[in-house]
Amino acid sequence: MGISAKELPLGDVFTPNYRLSIPSFQRAYIWQPENIMQLVDDLLEACKTPGTPYFLGSLILVREGGTRYEVIDGQQRLVSLSIVIAALRDLEHDPEWMGLLDKLIVDPGDKLRGIANEPRLTLREKDAAFFREYVQEGNLEALFDLSDEDWTTAAQRNITRNTRRVYDALADLGEEERRAFASYMVKMVTLVIVTTDDLDGAHRIFDVMNMRGLPLTASDVFKARATAALPPAEIDAYAARWDDIMEPLGDDPQSTEEFFETLHMIVTHQHSTGKLIEEFLADVLQPHIEAGTVPAFIDGTLAPYAAAWQIIAHAPETVLPNEVKERLEALNDYRHHEWKAVAMWVLVHSYRKLGSPDVSPFASRAGRAARTKTTVRELGGHDEQRLIEVLTALERVTGLDTLNRVDAFTRRGHATAAIRDLDKGYPTNLVRGLTVRANDRLSALVRLHGEMQGDDDLVRLLLIRANEQKAGMRLARPRKLSVLTIMPLDIGRSASFAHWSQDDHDYWMYRLGDMALAQGTADQLDKMNEYAPRRERMLMRADSRRFPLTDGLKDFNECTPAMLRHRQEETIQLIADYWRIRYDENHTDLTAQGGEGLAETAAAAKPAHGSRRVTIRQVVQAGLLIPGEKLVWERPRKGERWFATVTEDGRFRLDDGSEHSSPTAAAKAAAGGKASGGLDVWKRTSDGRRLSEIWKEYRLKAQ
């Protein structure tokens, strides 16, 4: 078995030297938006020190012959990096930069030398064509036009959602920032490329590199260094104590590293820069080793903070007051975890005996019977009011940061500032990092009034907050809880919405007023175009009716713009009341101003176009399409041709008289439901220009 390993910058990996493919036996692309955004946030932060390389791990490849390799380990990162580069390319205006970025993910080929144009990375057969057509070949505009029914695999859904999130994040950067980021990725982001000639050898390498034999975690390294500084008589006892403390946290290396990164932030008031072991040893352990206070660190720092970490992960199982448990459960709703450092700090400083081997914060645990009788008093609980104040303020800031799409660097800054001020004994209302600025409040309210397409998790969370505020209590959630729209995507064939204008429909379609929580999957209303059956399906299950905003649909026999406006205003007021952002310093009700009024008030708030779906009507109103003009979709090899006409109200009318609200819907109707990506297939007959180009022109003008 021939094995080789070398470290290369990303710019040397995405070249003709490596034609990479994902074998069919590999699992699909499973990264979620939070995974890819963590990668983007980490790389953006690393880019702030452009002379420092960023190591992105290893790729394990099996050599197929020549420059072709199968990817055994590294698929998730390679696909995600391709998405980042595709977004950078799509946001670029300079043709030279666009060409350079394009060459990173697509080999342009060489006709003279007989080299075919092909992507640098080929996915599994089920997803390869989708990824190539929409991401690698630069058809992001068509990708953004797709809806749930256009995805045939979960990987395609993940690709679409991740591309949207990355595009939105990078669109917020300036042009020079994006170019600096692209240059940093190409030159300073490195990978170790491990290659072998056979599959068995690759799997053996994979096992070794993932430490499946005798794992050596960050905790093992720190324990070895700490106990080595102890007198021989104490080593065994404190090594066992360390294991007892860390064992409940589990053996997941990633989770363990996150715990120690958080502990490093709490102790030093600084966040890790990606060198956890080196920094934790130098900043946290070494001072105790030099001072001879390692036992004090293990008993007085490691133990209580490990217990706090466990409380956060399993709050309902603890003996803590119900309000404390509910605050922690609410914080666990968020996809970002910078808040954990502050929550751990306040828990440790609210329970003096947290981490003691004689008491446990859990209502029942295996082991000593005495542990089942622990009370808050036995935990040394004190100043419960401050604990609740801090957790409430922390959840408020975390919620607004999530809604306002605050980057990871700023979120960590909030956490470190809060811990620094809490250590100084400041009252909660004066703690930096736990206070909300006027612009943050206004920005959040503007976003609540706007469209909410493309982030299902955030919409679900906002509706949960609104419903729980209305109910005055935390509501039990069914295992499958989906966000459903009251209106169908296409109202052209619906009698219930015959009186609606296309403008009204497009305005309300993706706003909170048109959305409701319901038990079940997100596709349960796909074939229902009438209001009554859609409403009855949403109200069918008791698990759906427990949400008061959903249950309130029973009081409306018709769906009208006034009804959705009422729901919108009520939902926003409930969320604003929950986070205490409804009133300004002069006790003015900000929610009464409406979205446009708030946008004008918030000078710093700018409209976020990002990856929001562009409608036909918007393009018509911008003068980029003319009502009455003709479009064509041709399939020469199949001898097929379809025509569509642009209507006055922003729809496409096919030759059979049917009208459709999106290019993709028109393409599917023309081809009998066997097509997607309508922006890329329809062309204007007058100049042959693809709709994807026209949509891109509109988006650039709107930004």
Any chance you could write out the topology, listing elements then pairs?
Blueprint: E1 3-9, H1 10-13, E2 19-21, H2 33-46, E3 54-65, E4 68-73, H3 75-91, H4 95-105, E5 106-107, E6 118-119, E7 121-122, H5 125-136, H6 140-144, H7 154-171, H8 175-188, E8 189-196, H9 199-209, H10 218-228, H11 232-246, H12 253-268, H13 276-291, H14 294-313, H15 322-331, H16 340-348, H17 384-403, H18 408-423, H19 438-449, H20 456-471, E9 481-485, H21 502-508, E10 515-519, H22 531-539, H23 542-545, H24 548-551, H25 561-579, H26 594-601, H27 616-621, E11 630-635, E12 640-646, E13 652-654, E14 659-660, H28 663-670, H29 678-681, E15 683-684, H30 691-702
Parallel strand pairs: 2-4, 2-7, 3-8
Antiparallel strand pairs: 1-8, 3-4, 5-6, 9-10, 11-12, 11-15, 12-13, 13-14
Helix pairs in contact: 2-7, 3-4, 3-7, 5-7, 10-11, 10-13, 11-14, 12-13, 12-16, 14-16, 15-17, 16-17, 16-18, 19-26, 20-25
Provide an overview of this structure.
With 703 residues, this protein is an alpha+beta fold. It has 4 domains: 3-209, no CATH class; 218-427, no CATH class; 444-601, no CATH class; 616-702. The strands form 4 sheets. It has a 6-stranded mixed beta sheet with strand order 1-8-3-4-2-7, with helices on both faces. A 5-stranded antiparallel beta sheet has the order 14-13-12-11-15. A two-stranded antiparallel sheet has the order 5-6. Strand 12 (640-646) and strand 13 form a beta hairpin. Helix 12 (253-268) packs across helix 13 (276-291). 39% of the residues are buried.
